[in-house]
Amino acid sequence: MKDFPLYRFGVFSLALRLPSTMTQAEIKLCSLLLQEHFGEIVEKIGVHLIRTGSQPLRVIAHDTGTSLDQVKKALCVLIQHNLVSYQVHKRGVVEYEAQCSRVLRMLRYPRYIYTTKTLYSDTGELIVEELLLNGKLTMSAVVKKVADRLTETMEDGKTMDYAEVSNTFVRLADTHFVQRCPSVPTTENSDPGPPPPAPTLVINEKDMYLVPKLSLIGKGKRRRSSDEDAAGEPKAKRPKHTTDNKEPIPDDGIYWQANLDRFHQHFRDQAIVSAVANRMDQTSSEIVRTMLRMSEITTSSSAPFTQPLSSNEIFRSLPVGYNISKQVLDQYLTLLADDPLEFVGKSGDSGGGMYVINLHKALASLATATLESVVQERFGSRCARIFRLVLQKKHLEQKQVEDFAMIPAKEAKDMLYKMLSENFMSLQVGCQ
Amino acid sequence: MAGNKGRGRAAYTFNIEAVGFSKGEKLPDVVLKPPPLFPDTDYKPVPLKTGEGEEYMLALKQELRETMKRMPYFIETPEERQDIERYSKRYMKVYKEEWIPDWRRLPREMMPRNKCKKGPKPKKAKDADVLKKIEELEKRDDGEKSDEENEDKEGSKEKSKEGDDDDDDDAAEQEEYDEEEQEEENDYINSYFEDGDDFGADSDDNMDEATY
């Protein structure tokens, strides 16, 4: 029996990774990100946790050769920025664990901020920026900081009202781009025992986007020119404690953070809409965009397809100024549903026709197209042809590749080997 | 055994056809050196995507990098002691807002231990500080680095016994003490000479000094 090598599409594992399976390159990247944003000490502690997994405070100090004091400071910073979480284990030992993929998200901060700018203009942009820079903040703190920053950029004499910033904040919360952090549960003093070694932070699903009723009244303040000192200018005296700390905080203990998953959902939607625009036309993409917008909050981000939407509902939700008739809309929907890419599917006939967006199928198509494009740019169009073939058929023998792709044997062998050596293909020896 | 073609004759231990070479075909030359570090590529990479959005994000990224360094979350590494303490160093410290975490949200072990030593016994602390300082200076003169390392090791051992905040405490106290002492003893007016200032630019402040 002869053994023929089978060429198989190398599977890229994009699935969820446990901390211990981070690649060396990813760990190095995390190290650079932490170092750049928080300094060497935080980097040392952070990378150690990424490498070793969950550990208690003293073990971290011992293993990294860092003083307890420094480790505490580093952990406080990391926890503040949602990069490390803690858990109480048996016998009251608290262990700290790094959230590795969250560290990598730091690469996307500019994109999150820019996206908010496109959706909610400068005010929204600064709100998200402050939340990302500080990890978490109370709403009152965000509003004050943003009002001050916006006032700096305004003409002399003009100031930004707190109310306007608050309104934008509420809109961001309503559309889930910012969310409340889990908080310390209010104790009822029923348990007189010793306090726990660490609080268990909780959040109720329905409270996650609930904006506290605050009456934030005020305007942004400009920094007075006599106080102004640009970064790096010498200041002889020790800095005095800011007097602002003495004011009571109306929403004390209620912290907010940027909701990264919501941004990712937005990026996904953007990718789908632009794919439809490229493949079909502007109107089709606007219809798809409308459908996605209608499903924003009702469909979970990991769902395979959106909730079914009726043609009537879609018609009512089209953006103001989009003047297409109901009939035309129905035609477009039918076209979209019939397209072989299957971005849109028809799930029923009531309400003028029930339609869904096939999220998983759409993303798989986009991923495939990206991979094919990578192969084409790196190895040429003939390699791309072979790649598409093997992707489609799953397993192919070398002879079959030559025949299907209509490429001479010697070249086919060369190309297959090149892709094999760069891990785009893998070899599977099987018996005929 | 069946595959042997005779003593001394090279024979493959596997079926050469499986890898794609037909029998008797000339094999490619043996490569004697590692492949080049930057081989020529047939296909050049696609140019980076640019546009208004991308440029804005790039500018944002640079800004964020700078901003983060000035925030209180950026923990500076304690510098190695230099041989000569530069006079101007004290006055070049960048103002950084202090950040105090919300202790209610953190494990109790995160809180620094209480520093109550400053109040009740300032004099004793000062004496201890002076002695310590003299010790350190002595050690420093003997041969800087190795002694400093030893000192650090001893210091960290002490720390783990007594409690971590003593060192910080002493350092903080020492610094304050230094400033006070120096401010008293110096004849120089601290604001008189600053780096980069023109000579005589501050002369308005010191009218009693003769100007030439």
From TrEMBL, chain A:
Biased composition (Basic and acidic residues): 232-249
Annotated segments matching region Disordered: 182-202, 218-251
Subcellular localization(s) per the UniProt record: Nucleus
GO biological process: DNA-templated transcription
Sequence similarity: Belongs to the eukaryotic RPC3/POLR3C RNA polymerase subunit family.
Function summary: DNA-dependent RNA polymerase catalyzes the transcription of DNA into RNA using the four ribonucleoside triphosphates as substrates. Specific peripheric component of RNA polymerase III (Pol III) which synthesizes small non-coding RNAs including 5S rRNA, snRNAs, tRNAs and miRNAs from at least 500 distinct genomic loci. Part of POLR3C/RPC3-POLR3F/RPC6-POLR3G/RPC7 heterotrimer, coordinates the dynamics of Pol III stalk and clamp modules during the transition from apo to elongation state. Pol III plays a key role in sensing and limiting infection by intracellular bacteria and DNA viruses.
Description of how the protein assembles with itself and partners: Component of the RNA polymerase III (Pol III) complex consisting of 17 subunits. Component of the RNA polymerase III complex consisting of 17 subunits: a ten-subunit horseshoe-shaped catalytic core composed of POLR3A/RPC1, POLR3B/RPC2, POLR1C/RPAC1, POLR1D/RPAC2, POLR3K/RPC10, POLR2E/RPABC1, POLR2F/RPABC2, POLR2H/RPABC3, POLR2K/RPABC4 and POLR2L/RPABC5; a mobile stalk composed of two subunits POLR3H/RPC8 and CRCP/RPC9, protruding from the core and functioning primarily in transcription initiation; and additional subunits homologous to general transcription factors of the RNA polymerase II machinery, POLR3C/RPC3-POLR3F/RPC6-POLR3G/RPC7 heterotrimer required for transcription initiation and POLR3D/RPC4-POLR3E/RPC5 heterodimer involved in both transcription initiation and termination.
Listed name of the protein: DNA-directed RNA polymerase III subunit RPC3
Automatic annotation (TrEMBL), chain B:
Amino acid composition bias (Basic and acidic residues), ranges on this chain: 125-143, 153-162
Annotated region (Disordered), positions in chain: 110-212
One GO cellular component term: RNA polymerase III complex
Organism: Macaca fascicularis (Crab-eating macaque)
Superkingdom: Eukaryota
Biased amino acid composition, Acidic residues: 163-187, 194-212
Transmembrane regions listed in the UniProt entry: none
Swiss-Prot/TrEMBL GO biological process terms: cell population proliferation; transcription by RNA polymerase III
InterPro entries in the record: RNA_pol_III_Rpc31
Protein name: RNA polymerase III subunit G
UniProt keyword list: Nucleus
